[in-house]
Amino acid sequence: MSGVVVVGGTSGIGREFARTRARRGDDVVITGRDPHRTDTAAKEIGARGLALDLARPKEIGDALSEVGAVDHLVIAAISRDENRVAEYDIDAAVHLITLKLVGYTAVVHALRSRLHDDSAVVLFGGQAKERPYPGATTVATVNAGVTGLMRTLAVELAPVRVNAIHPGVVGDSPHWRAKPEEILAGLRARTPTGRLATMADVVDAVDFLLRNGSVNAVELSVDGGWLLG
Description:
This protein is an alpha/beta fold. It contains eight helices and seven strands; from the N terminus they run βαβαβαβαβαβαααβ. Helices cover 41% and strands 15% of the residues. A seven-stranded parallel beta sheet has the order 3-2-1-4-5-6-7, with helices on both faces. β5 (120-124), α5 and β6 form a beta-alpha-beta unit. The chain is globular. The relative contact order is 0.13.
């Protein structure tokens, strides 16, 4: 049985990964911003829940004080932000940068003493860093920042392995599932596999990054070749 922590495990891919590991019998802890929602999600998937807001990094250490030894740490929390230079929302930009770069790092800092030589960490980025779109000013920037964060953590935490995963359009995720079919059809047409990535695909990829002891400081794209389209 492994000790697994999923930061951002109350919905979407994070929740699906946590549910998969809990079903295997692992000791899973999930975090979310809202205490009630986190507790409810944890009970539904057979995990333990802790309330934690990555945008309030100074509180992260106390929030994670009850966590024991960590074999696998997945930081999957995201915040969707549409921000353009022409109408730049500074508060929204600072919030997302704090959440995904400072907050991610603060989690690793808080749990560092509970990692061991065979532990592994996976950080979530995203393909906006490679194919930005109007409104992705901050999203593309922080996802590119995840690359630098992953590399420096792999050096500083060695021999703990640290990798990053960059999902493309995940067609059955809550965000994309709500999009009009014509938008999804257009995205599928631009994807060489002819299908969009699924949450199960991403969960499997995260599991691989955590499991394979020779994969370290790697960025893994899960997008069906979408960037080639």
